[in-house]
UniProtKB/TrEMBL annotation:
Residues 336-346 have a biased composition (Acidic residues). Residues 334-353 are annotated as: Disordered. GO terms for cellular component: cytoplasm. PANTHER family: CELL DIVISION CYCLE PROTEIN 123 HOMOLOG, D123 PROTEIN. Keywords: Cell cycle, Cell division. GO terms for biological process: cell division. ATP-dependent protein-folding chaperone for the eIF2 complex. Binds to the gamma subunit of the eIF2 complex which allows the subunit to assemble with the alpha and beta subunits. Belongs to the CDC123 family. The keyword ATP-binding does not apply. Pfam families: D123. This is Translation initiation factor eIF2 assembly protein.
């Protein structure tokens, strides 16, 4: 894989070619200062003005005098100065408004789907604070910032300095209608159900029509217009049967092969599969397979499950539940004041047994 193949999959490098075939999106160039803020893996402090809406009941909090106790604790903590990016804040909020008030973000190449647990298991954002929280919490985004070209054979140590924030108009996509297409030598070689951990009965029912519709869309609308001959493209079939392009990825093992293996994809020899149909042209020529998850398949957890945290940790890290923050500070204060026979004892959160 060459570095140019990675660059070609950069959102801004393909969006203008396929604007009419994807959801409306806006691109915001990022300063080096802001990129360094994202790369800093220290304490999470959102920049000044990047607030997140709180969901707790303020009347209940006031009745318990929790806020006063919390404020007393905060006064005793070392003050952390939040960074300031006023121009970026204004730009993000203006873009969110232009896109209808709801967006989902991605960086130069990757969406922070591994961090969705920070925002109630959704990438939908309505303010700049939610956008920043997702980006700052994502390992996928960190990979974009530090290791995007590390698997390339012509990789060099010259840092990439043209990172962008992409805000895409929010759409309620049906997971079962997303598909990943593997194009090799400008031929649709393989199509996989995108969310392959789940079984959708309509995919098995409509498998033949889906295989034809997806193959023809890629052949007629994408092949010949995308600059590479080998690549991966994610597409979505809408309720009105129109197709959307979701994203492009390099034809390389760094991209999830889903229901195929990279040995199959690289060799061009696809093994027989009970949950597949052939990608067959009108003249009978077969170019590959469309695979889906069958009813008897062993279903597995989401591939991003390992990135998630208990909900209490999310509430503490975002400040979305003030009562938990207050209880947390009370426990810490109590443990600090308690005498112990061992200097090695540490305070810790209580757990249910």
């Amino acid at each position: 894989m060459k570095m140019d193949q990675i660059r070609n999959c950069r959102f801004s490098n393909w969006y203008l070619k396929f604007t009419e075939l994807t959801m409306k999106s806006l691109v915001i160039p990022l300063s080096e200062e802001f990129v360094e803020y994202l790369k800093d893996n220290g304490t999470l402090v959102l920049p000044d003005g990047f607030s997140i809406d709180n969901n707790y009941d303020r009347e209940e909090e006031d009745s318990d005098n929790n806020l006063s106790h919390w404020n007393e604790q905060v006064e005793n903590q070392e003050e952390v100065v939040a960074p300031r990016f006023p121009d970026l804040l204004e730009h993000i909020m203006r873009c969110i408004q232009e896109l209808g008030g709801k967006v989902f973000p991605k960086l130069t190449w990757s969406a922070p789907k591994d961090a969705s647990w920070m925002t109630h298991n959704s990438l939908k954002c309505t303010n700049a604070g939610e956008v920043l929280l997702l980006l700052k919490s994502s390992d996928f985004v960190m990979h974009d910032l530090t290791s995007a070209f590390s698997a390339c054979e012509d990789f060099n140590d010259q840092p990439f300095k043209e990172h962008q924030l992409v805000l895409r108009k929010w759409a309620n996509l049906v997971p079962g209608m997303e598909f990943r297409c593997f194009v090799k030598n400008n031929c649709v070689h393989a199509i996989s159900q995108r969310h392959c951990k789940q079984y959708y009965d309509y995919l098995e029912r409509d498998k033949n029509d889906l295989a034809v519709d997806i193959r023809q869309f890629v052949e007629r609308k994408i092949i010949g217009k995308f600059p590479d001959t080998n690549y991966v493209v994610d597409v979505y079939k809408k309720r009105d049967n129109r197709m959307w392009i979701i994203d492009f990825n390099p034809f390389n093992k760094t991209t999830d092969s889903l229901l195929f293996t990279w040995d199959e994809l690289n060799s061009g020899v696809l093994q027989p599969n009970p949950y597949s149909v052939e990608l067959q042209h009108a003249d009978g020529h077969v170019t590959g397979q469309f695979r889906f998850t069958g009813s008897n398949s062993v279903l597995q957890p989401s591939e991003t499950l390992s990135y998630r945290m208990p909900v209490d940790f999310v509430d503490l890290s975002t400040g979305s539940d003030a009562t938990k923050l207050v209880d947390f500070m009370r426990m810490r204060t109590q443990n600090d004041e308690d005498t112990s026979e061992s200097d090695d004892d540490e305070w810790r959160l209580p757990c249910d047994r």
